[in-house]
Design brief:
The chain has about 220 residues and is α+β, with helices and mostly antiparallel strands. It has nine helices and five strands. It folds into two domains: about 120 residues; about 90 residues, no CATH class. Helix 1 packs antiparallel against helix 2 and helix 6 runs antiparallel to helix 7. The termini are far apart.
Length: about 220
């Protein structure tokens, strides 16, 4: 299992947290859970984890011998592994070693106990493909940011601004979750969805907003 966390982060451009399933919550014990500190915070939305970066890692982990489930916390700072009942110490060490080579660090002591307790509470953790929900939230954050940038340069009615935000959110959601049904083409997709709300001059403003990237900028904070 070799999935480079940093490479995936660089490649990755309203959520209801899921409850811990892990066979049966009544049978879950802390000794069957290992937790790791990970750098999977979303660059575009630092308040949540990055669905695009974490999804292949979680899915790959669940293919490993001894691993029952793998989960990411909402903040993108912790991965929890639920081990199968028959997993042995050597199997656990191998999976942990591979994760650590990918810039993760296994927690112990008080940090481990606190994180395991949070995980077992069943609130704010996402398993495997369910991190698409974080990607959907990320799409909304990026779309709203781009629309605010446009609004600092040109006047949009409330209806047009809201329509543009919703359309961009949907286009970004499909790209970030891989559900666009065809090859990714961000520029043509943006032109298609934005043309309904912007004239040619405003479209140039939007392209400039997009060219500034998806990460929050100091100017974005001043515009809020």
């Amino acid at each position: 299992m070799k999935t480079n966390v940093v490479a995936l982060l660089m490649g990755a451009a309203a959520c209801a947290p899921l409850a811990v399933s892990a066979e049966n919550a009544a049978n879950m014990t802390a000794d069957r859970v290992s937790v790791f500190k990970v750098p999977l915070v979303c660059p575009a939305a630092p308040q949540i984890g990055c669905g695009g970066a974490s999804k292949p890692i979680l899915l790959d982990l669940e293919k490993q011998p001894g691993v029952l489930e793998a989960w990411l916390n909402r903040a993108g700072t912790r991965i929890a592994i639920v081990w199968k009942q028959d997993s042995d110490a050597e199997t656990r060490r191998k999976v942990a070693k591979d994760l650590e080579e990918d810039r993760a660090a296994e927690l112990d002591g008080k940090q481990r106990d606190e994180t395991v307790a949070d995980f077992l509470s069943g609130k704010g953790w996402y398993r495997g493909a369910d991190v698409d929900r974080l990607s959907e939230e990320e799409a909304g954050v990026i779309a709203a940011r781009w629309v605010r940038r446009v609004q600092t340069k040109t006047t949009l009615s409330k209806d047009k601004a809201e329509g543009l935000r919703a359309a961009l959110t949907d286009a970004l959601r499909k790209e970030l979750t891989g559900r666009d049904g065809g090859p990714n083409d961000n520029e043509s997709s943006v032109e298609e969805v934005a043309g309904k709300y912007l004239d040619s001059a405003q479209m140039k403003v939007l392209k400039d907003a997009i060219n500034k990237g998806v990460r929050p900028l100091p100017s974005d904070e001043r515009a809020n």
